[in-house]
Amino acid sequence: MASNTAGISLVAFVIALAVSIGYYQFMYIPEVNAKPLIAEEILHPEKSFHVEIVPGSAIPSQVKNFTPIEARATIEIDNRIIWTNNDTVPHTVTTDDGYVDVINGKFDTLAHEDIGGFVMPGKEWEFTFTKVGEFPYHCEPHPWMKGKVVIVENFS
Fold this sequence. Notes:
By secondary structure, the protein is α+β, with helices and mostly antiparallel strands.
């Protein structure tokens, strides 16, 4: 009788272990790694905020490189920022603090291979911020070019 109890206990333990591993593998891990649910208004705001990369920005003595220098946008309204390169040389928009958006990835053109890492002359690059905050940035090959995106709450 004692050997039957030990065998049943061992089988029950193996089944419990298999169920636990299955739950962890197929339910827990995908849920933890899933992207968070974010309101549609944040992911696809009704407007965009435009920033111009000014002609001549590659020249170190030029003071004005991004217009406006501080892009102040509102979450759910115009939190999609579009940079347009009106200069004759390629530029980047590179985070100063390593910001990585939970939906759109790293705030850095160099991390987005779909554009080859650079905003080419006459081209645009857009990034949608999904949280409120301040996001300083610069141009990697031209570090004197600095700007900031400020995303504020929508109080409407």
